[in-house]
Amino acid sequence: MYKDYIYDNFIAGRFRHWFFLLTLILLVLILFFSVAFLGKVPDNDYLALMTGSTLGYRGPDETWNPHLYSGMPWFLNPEVLEPDFITTLNHVFKKIIDWRVFFLLLAGVGMYILLVFLNWESSAAWLSALLFTLSGSLLNMLILKQDNLFQALCCLPLLALLVHYLRIRRSLLGLSLLSLVITIIMKQAEMTLNYILGALIIIYWLISSLILLKRNEIKITLNFTLLLIAALGLSFMANAIIYLPLGEFYHKAVSTPDIIEYSSLFYFLLHTIFTLFFSFILDQAFKEDSRLRDLLAICLKYILIFLTPALVAFFLLDTFLLNISTTFLPFLTAGIILLFSLVTYLLVNQQIHRTIYLFLCLLLLLGFFLYDNHHFFADLSTERELSVQPGRSLSDDFFAADDEIFRIFPLGNQFHNNDWAYHNQTIGGLYRSRLSRYSDVIKHCLTAEIQNRVPINWNIVNMLNVKYLIHDDKLPLENLQYAFYDLRQDLTIYSNTEYLPRCWFVGETVLIREKRNIWKKLNDPDFDPSQAAILENPIRELGTPLQFTASLIKYGNDHLLYELETDTLSLLVTSEIYYDGGWEAYLDGTPVRIHPINYILRGFAIPAGKHTLELRFETPRRALLLKLMIISIIIMLLILPVGIFLYLKKNYRGEIVYHLRS
Q: What whole-number distance in Å separates Cα of residue 380 and Cα of residue 198?
């Protein structure tokens, strides 16, 4: 009797949606209580440092990163662009609940409501939402510090729900909510995910429009299309300050595949497909009119649905009964599958109550969750602000004692070690993306010359202002002198006696337009970058200076200042990466052109006399794009109360059909 009361009033009755949503929220809060309210987080400093070091040790107001030679505009980091009121809201929000658990709740609630909107049975929607929320696919992103991807993917069910809601309701409320969710997802700047979600939205719009047009509902199709365009337009306006410069930068860069990101995205999408398929089968099982006695339905029901519970039980048995011979494990697994096939058969034939079935599925799901994610809970620690820079090594201290401006060259396995970029300017490092010009030089020139079995092209090393080289073995080269030995890391530091300063004048130029011929010239041992320079475009009337001085008197991330003197119109070469996406040059206050020199350096035509050359990294559209972002967010927030008012007005008139009440 009590069992029937619970079933009739909560699991299948009018309160079922409140019951399932509250139990979903409570389960997540209980499982993640220490993360939600006690400030515990997964502890994986190494990956956090590895990710952060690609930007070097930076200040929040700087826009260019010189620690990695290839450079990277700092404004590509979305967090730097947050208005003050959003930052304040984030701080207040953190005092209520941890953002990680909030997004998990968003994922679960969004999935449940989405499936209910698609007319799926509430019990199936609840189990599917749990399976979606408590998946290792999401939690592994937190462990691997894929926070942006985690947040974006947790919003995926809500995005699908709001696109569908906008089609069936075509209201300002749907427009506002959809634009806000798309803005949040786009803000994470996960290009691959955005491409996929954009394609899915277009496919949904196309299919929906064809269906509506087939019904001759032209007005509805037009309204839905215009509202969807408006939502996408507002979202893009809010993120234009990220994506316009991002596109400009990546147009000149070569992206390095992020294995962690792509694998996380792949497994998440695979998991999402499995969740939806799992939900569909459950939905058919719980509906009274489902035809499960068909052969295909039986195969799907008996095997695919309970493949996951079978593996759950298998993992649990494997955990607690470690002494079981592996010979019996396949038989044990087959037995578990048969067992749950029998349970399913009893459910289908109404010989077992659905409440018991749901409870059994819940236990198995929690067992699988706890086993699969035990490492997540085992590595929790009190949250702290991770230091942007790792502990200083003996080598870092040695470099810090040198007052000159210079770069270092870690050889061998150290070349891709990003830790060097925290305290030093390095020509190495593992880049998320690298400017294509420098990538070409690394691939075709940097190791092209071999001396004493050491593959180093000294033309490249010298003109990149490399004063020190780091290696874990002896380097028998005449131009290198022993400088320091790092006992802790077992690394030897050599000083390069032939390195060039940050700026110098040359008397010879050679015009080469084809990049492969430029690489060939850079690889020529007879080419001397201290005396000659390779031009890609002609500069008229250049002479050979007999008396000259060139010095860098001010060095900053976004601002360089040179004092120059020459006796004739001559070419100045500066050892900075050539990037025409924001750097502007001013000679005595007058704008001058920046020329690509030696394929990766900057050059300037300097007339005779004393001069001051100033370089500034400027983004003239930045202020405009920031205003555009604030305006679009204000529009979304203004539309929201209007949409709520119109929604309540229609509700008062009885014009709204509630899916969650049906």
A: 35
User: Edge-to-edge strands of the sheet including 491-496?
Assistant: 407-410, 466-471, 491-496, 480-486
Helix, strand, coil shares, percent, the chain, to 5: 55, 15, 30
The string over 274-294, giving b where at least 16 C-beta atoms fall within 10 Å of a residue's C-beta and e elsewhere, is: bbbebbbbbbbbbeeebebee
What is the structure's pLDDT at 203? 82
- What are residue 450's phi and psi, to 5 degrees? -120, 120
The DSSP output letter for 54 is: G
Q: What is the pLDDT of residues 322-331, one digit of tens each?
A: 444 455 555 6
Note the pTM of the prediction, 2 decimals. Answer: 0.70
b/e per residue, 142-156, with b = 16+ CB within 10 A?
bbbbbbbbbbbbbbb
Q: How far is CA 264 from CA 109, 145, 147, 148, 662, in A?
A: 22, 11, 11, 12, 37
43 phi/psi in degrees, rounded to 5 = -100, 110
Looking at residue 297, its pLDDT comes to 43
Evaluate whether 399 touches 467 at the Cβ level (below 8 Å): no
- Determine which helix (DSSP H) or strand (DSSP E) holds 625, and give its type and residue range: helix 622-653
Q: What is the pLDDT of residues 532-551, one digit of tens each?
A: 999 999 998 899 999 999 99
Residue bearing the bigger pLDDT, 542 or 120:
542
